[in-house]
Design brief:
OB fold (Dihydrolipoamide Acetyltransferase, E2P); five-stranded antiparallel sheet; 3 helices; 24% helix; globular
Amino acid sequence: MKMRVEIDSSTKEGEVIIRAPEYTQNIKEIQALVERQNATQKVMTFYQDATEFYLEVGDILFFETEERQVCAHTEDAIYTTHQRLYELEDRLPIEFIRISKSCIVNVSKILALTKSLSNCLVQFQNSHKQVYASRRYYKPLQEHLKKLR
């Protein structure tokens, strides 16, 4: 597959055109990736007590539910959000993937995966924080890592 980028300063809005002899599964996946990436938020609002923080989504290591509250973890802090995990799944960039019923991770921040019989330990770069991926989500996580790296 060939790829070409044309820069035209007279264009007001970017446009992505996919030309192919037929509509294959590969084309469908590329289209879905572009649509999802285009629709995602780059900065989100998070909370610590009564303070609002505006953070770039790329700084988040993972989201997890804790006592009916969704928490966003960065390298050194924890924030809450008013959104549910299923809502975040639709709004987050392609780098994020669900790894259990209660957790979504940023695969670009993953340092290591340690597999055991029942689950997989996920460790993050520049942080002591870690989470577990369930067996059900392990294979999609591995495939997603391979695609993005």
